[in-house]
Amino acid sequence: MVTAGEHFLVSMREAVYSRSLPLATEHLRIVPTQTSGRAGVLGASALVTAHTLTPANVNTLLAS
After folding, report:
1. How far is the C-alpha of 30 from the C-alpha of 7, rounded, in Å?
2. Which of 1, 6, 9, 53 is the most buried (most CB within 10 A)?
3. Are residues 44 and 63 located together in one domain of the fold?
4. Rounded distance, CA 44 to CA 46, Å?
5. Where are the alpha helices (DSSP H) in the chain?
């Protein structure tokens, strides 16, 4: 969807701003991705990191 370019972003901005309170979108910027198609990998790695570094998991690893 991101490859649709500026036309897609304009439509998305219109939808978000028309359905949101002005205070909620005051500092919101909707911009093209800078992940170059790596969003899925980056998201998955963030989930793995968040799960691995939970206090319970860290305590278990330290106790070993």
Report:
1. 13
2. 9
3. yes
4. 5
5. 6-19, 39-52, 55-63
Tell me how many domains the chain contains.
Answer: 2
| Rounded CA separation 10/49 (Å) | 34
Instruction: Answer for the pair 39, 33: CB distance below 8 angstroms, yes or no.
Output: yes
The whole domain housing 60 covers 38-64
Residue 46 and residue 28 share a domain? no
Note the pTM of the prediction, 2 decimals: 0.50
Amino acid at 51: H
The answer to whether 58 touches 64, Cβ cutoff 8 Å, is no
Residues counted in the chain: 64
- The pLDDT profile of the chain, 64 residues, written as one tens digit per residue, is 556 678 888 999 999 999 999 999 999 998 888 887 898 999 999 999 999 999 999 999 999 8
What's the CA gap between 51 and 47, in Å, rounded? 6
